[in-house]
Protein 1
Amino acid sequence: MQVGLKATGGTLFAIGAATVALLAPSAHAGAGGFSPGSARSGDPFFPREGNGGYDVQHYGVENSYSPGKRRLRGATTIDAVATQGLSRFYLDLRKHMRVSAISVDGQPASFVQRDGKLAITPAAGIPDGDAFTAVVSYDGHPRPVVDPDGSSEGWFTTDDGAFVASEPLGTTSWMPCNDRPDDKASFDFDITVPKQLRVASNGTLTGVTRTESKATFHWSQPEPMATYLATTTIGRFRFLRSSQDGIDSLVALDPGFGRRTPAPFKRTGEILGVYQKAFGPYPFGSTGAILDPGPVGFALETQTRPIYASPPSTYIHAHELAHQWFGDAVSVSRWPDIWLNEGFATWASWLWEQHLGKRSLHATFRKAYEAPLSKRFWGPPPRRLGGPKNLFDSSVYVRGAMTLEALREKIGNPAFYGLLRSWVSDHLYGNGSTAEFIALAETTSGRQLDKFFRIWLKRTGKPKRW
Ligand code: ZN
């Protein structure tokens, strides 16, 4: 699902994509005009990631993993709608996952796998507006993707299976997809593993099918999800079920961390309670967590069920739960807007600590303002990051959160909380941009806020007056 497909970026790529999109209808006027979809999203940070010419509605992922051989085999069914007449279209998948066959609407399609892309030529052109179904079969040894900032994400092999956390580009290490955050879709996962193992994924576990040696875990994620939020983490988990603030919870716990629910996860309901009051209803049908020792230094807000490589603090768990509203239910349109995820989740953890009576929002703001956490704390400005190598810079988190707190103190609680709730409900299951957030802040508060946001998000150095 693509909501609000707009070329807001000022880069050459974005202008190029917008121009092509505008020209396409007249260049192929009438029915029967077919041309290749774009092999790029034009995202200012990851222009080659993601594709155009269609809109994915649903992914059906059927994978089978052999931990001994570290081998992943499977087929992903992609239901999409053409947004132009398509003679050819592209998907993202890293080359270590070798594709053996692709069909489109039941007919074999020809394809080329190169440079992280599948170029797919269906037997017949797909008319603009038509729904179509592509099935991609693959086999390989998945391994993580390395980012411009040197971090890795995607599929990590573990002692007993795999740890799967994919922000921003790692999903292409284990399944074919349209890897751009503004093409969200519902997902079903049918993941087969040796019978002593379990699979933890997004949404609801709807069933387990067993043979003598294997088990297939069926997970369903009905609300739209950005590709980078998908996980199929595999291990010797205990599944701990409960109800948290009225929401079904499943915690997948690696037994190396004991038999009992770690303390921060017991507070999920209390945290969700604070957030439901502040941001509006929890946007998904289930919650929980995945705790599995993996070789990564970050936690991730995998939709409905955040993933951790080591037991988090309650503060970090509160951060990942806040992302269910800010990042998951409402996702960035383009990666340079990442402060809309990380700044908001950081501010939300401050709200949680205020609820605990630890420290008020204002006091946390003052502490950060007066005692920078690091030298790079004030820069780069959150909406002027300079490139993807700074995507998860501490300024995105802390200066981003300070931006929100400064805004709350400027426009007052009624306008501020009204703004957050409208932001979520207006963009629910879709995407949003910084420009849209600023526009909504101005209408909600009745104030002119261009200068305020310019100072906080774009100006170099520590803001002095705003
Ligand atoms: Zn975060």
Protein 2
Amino acid sequence: MGSMDIGVIGLAVMGQNLALNIESRGYTVAVYNRTEARTRAFIESQSKSKAIEAAYDIESFVALLSRPRKVLLMVKSGAATDALIEALLPLLEPGDILMDGGNAHYSDTDRRYAAAERLGLHYLGIGISGGETGALLGPAIMVGGSLSGYEQVAPLLESLAAVGPHGSCCALLGPRSAGHYVKMIHNGIEYALMQALCEAYDLMHRGLEMSADEMADVFGRWNDAELESYLVAITEKILRQQDPEGTGPLVEMILDTAAQKGTGKWSSQSALDLGTPSASIAAAVFARITSSLKAERSAAEMLLAGPHPRLSMRRDEALDALFSTLLLAFLTVYGQGFRQLQDASQDRAYALDLSEVARVWMAGCIIRARLLVPMGKAFARQPDLAYLLLAEPFQSLWNKHQASFRSMVACAHEAGIPVPAMSSALNFVDTYRTARLPANLLQAQRDYFGAHTYQRIDRDGIEHTNWEQVR
Ligand code: NBP
């Protein structure tokens, strides 16, 4: 019988760094990767004193593990994960614990969970965030599955996670695919925060003609205030980076097209299925899609007129308004993500505790931010909070900064600088805080052409009007 505490399959960037992280916490680790050369390169790059043992076929890998076996998959999500599970299942025994740490779609996790549990295995769907550095030094770990399965790996997982202001950023968040669903929403929020930061950069760069160093100074100042977060911090560092080829700031030499795939897209697809208004997350996905149309955009720039992209505000005034804008856009986006979790939790019976989700996101992950501390408190006070901005201190922040948010978005539109995430955040909150929307006309239009009926505001019941006969 084997003696290794855990086995990691998949030795690309995440698997390698997680294996090293786990070993650094005093555990012994078996590793295996489909392509042998990658395993050999990894083992040869490590000192021999490390408690890491490699296997070059899956049977030998399983034989290295102590019982109950604990296997962590860190491979490309989708077909690769299915192929590995198919190969592993005949080699595992009831009571063993199979964990998928990749970015699996929640419906795949539900299917795999059911198949594994039927065989008496414990299956945990684990969302891991933090990229390469997080994997090595301490990621945020969002787990879904059974309590009995989690309890057996909790000391190991909790030891390798980042430590936030309220403890280890690892928790069992709910049953089945709850962990992967939360990770998906984490990534949706990440998309929208990144897009809003890109818009702030564009407004400063083109709208105020600021240099990269000047913009870095601004992001640095914001990172010392309420906007303190990983994404604001790395934006400052990126803007300070010079091109080693001597052309100036490196960021200006990078092609302006972004891909979108996987979790960001899935968040928006799920929002549409649930009927939850995660508009700014979707706006960020569409912004990436539009950015990828580089040739079309270049041609359109010659054909479609617009104003000179210069903001009609003094620089100091504009930077104050931009801070307000980014702060409220961030809050709106987190609010949409938490609302989607609220709706998904009901729909999919996850029983999520959103203060616990906020706690897990406080360190290690890409969307970690100072604002998550009061967000966690707001959900602890009011677990069924419908929308984040309704709670304090966020309501007061909205009321204090909303006028500047409006001025900045209006100014951006006037200058022809696209701000899809910021603008959709403002539109969302303005829609949400409007008691009477023009959907009355919409209902009339539907009844006009499709006899879809409508309700009146002055009595109960369903109405239909023969609109062609009305004068
Ligand atoms: P990748 O997502 O690039 O996947 C590469 C790994 O998958 C390699 O080990 C590769 O083996 C293996 N693999 C593939 Br591809 N097809 C396979 C198959 N049919 N059978 C067995 N193994 C197969 O690696 P990653 O970036 O380290 O990410 C690992 C997981 O973690 C992914 O699900 C990813 O979405 C998730 N994740 C990544 C990050 C990040 O920052 N990169 C962050 C959070 C989560 P090979 O060497 O033989 O090709």
